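Progress report, Aim 2. The chain analyzed during this reporting quarter is listed below.
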Amino acid sequence: NADEQLEKVLELGEKLDAEFIAKTAVFTRQESFMKDMPALLVAILSTKNDKELFEKAFPLVIDNGKMLRNFVQIMRSGVVGRKSLGSMPKRLVREWFENREPENIFKQSVGQTPSFADILKMVHPKPKSETHEALYGYLIGREIKFENLPEIVQIYEQFKAGKTNGKVPDVPFQM
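Predicted structure tokens for the chain:
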């Protein structure tokens, strides 16, 4: 069952070297398209004494909002031996936000436990634009300047408020 598998992976994670764990994490994400195992392996990797490998593997594995939430949830659960992110994981999560366009952050902000608001409050990314600042504020429930939000968020909020005037906005759809 899942608990036995988790126990076995954690047991192996203690015995295996960091390079093998890093390569396996990247492979399981990019080639096997797994969702929880790569995040768990990167969390295990964060506890090893190879910061360089962790820094290289993190962006290759934690490549979308779901993976980011999985990673943070695993770290906070204490299952890998720590209940906080720690300085390097915190920095890499902060960089995850800083290296993405506001529209992409918004599109990937769906989900809870933890929510993007929770993660933003943990890592305090530095907004590189007024749009980033407004989006971060919007996601954590602060007062913001509506006009600074990304267009997609403005359209979403207008839609929620019923202010579409019967028109469907021309928003490009991407998969």
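DSSP finds ten helices and no strands in the chain. The chain has a mean pLDDT of 92. These observations will guide the mutagenesis work planned for the next reporting period.
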